[in-house]
Amino acid sequence: MNEYVMPLFGGALIGLAASLMLYWNGRVTGISGIIYGATVAPKKGDVSWRWFFIFGMLFGGLLLKIFLPLSFVEPLPTAHWTLVVAGLLVGFGTVLGSGCTSGHGVCGISRLSPRSLIATVTFMVAGIMAVVLFRSMGIYE
Questions:
Q1: What pLDDT sits at residue 7?
Q2: DSSP states of 74-86 as a string?
Q3: Burial of 93 (0-12, 13-18, 19+ CB in 10 A)
Q4: What pLDDT, on the 0 to 100 scale, is given for residue 140?
Q5: pLDDT (0 to 100) of residue 5
Q6: Cβ contact 34:53 at 8 Å
Q7: 58-117: pLDDT as tens digits
């Protein structure tokens, strides 16, 4: 039961947070765009909320680690260098795709954006293909 309840609860919280951000601030909750606007291309008067958002995500993760440490018990089944490469590829992909999965998948689709629908389908297909490829090569189970 818990294996379904917690992901559903987390998804509902993400949807609620994205909806509240759009309603209260008129902003899309795309993480890559928020980070980009806070670090790479900051605009006067548009930075502080971005840093609060970023620190809030980090602080939320820290609270989860403190109060629900079992959430982080399982180690990742991959070498650390692959995480670095994957992170760089994701960063490149967010620039190439004009946004990240959270921006397109959660916020863009809910606004009926055709670009976000295409991007999300592309993310999903690429992810499925990567899993099939890596499993067939015996890299990931």
A1: 83
A2: SPPSS-HHHHHHH
A3: middle
A4: 64
A5: 87
A6: yes
A7: 999 899 889 988 877 777 777 888 888 888 888 787 877 787 877 888 888 888 889 889
Q: State pTM to two decimals.
A: 0.72
Between CA 20 and CA 121 the distance in angstroms is: 25
CA distance 103 to 114: 13
Q: For residues 108 and 94, what is the distance between their CA atoms, to the nearest angstrom?
A: 14
For residues 123 and 134, give the distance between their C-alpha atoms in angstroms, rounded to a whole number.
16
Q: What is the CA radius of gyration of the chain?
A: 17
Backbone angles phi, psi at 73, to 5 degrees: -70, -40
* pLDDT tens digits, one per residue of 5-36: 888 888 898 889 888 888 898 888 888 888 88
Q: Helix count (H) and strand count (E) of the chain?
A: 7, 0
Largest CA distance in the chain: 50
Residue with tokens 């992810």: 127
Which token pair is 4? 């379904």
Token code pair at residue 72: 């982080």
What are the residues whose beta carbons fall under 8 Å from the beta carbon of 28, sequence distance 6 or more?
18, 21, 22, 103, 107, 108, 111
Measured CA to CA, the distance from residue 98 to residue 115 in angstroms comes to: 10
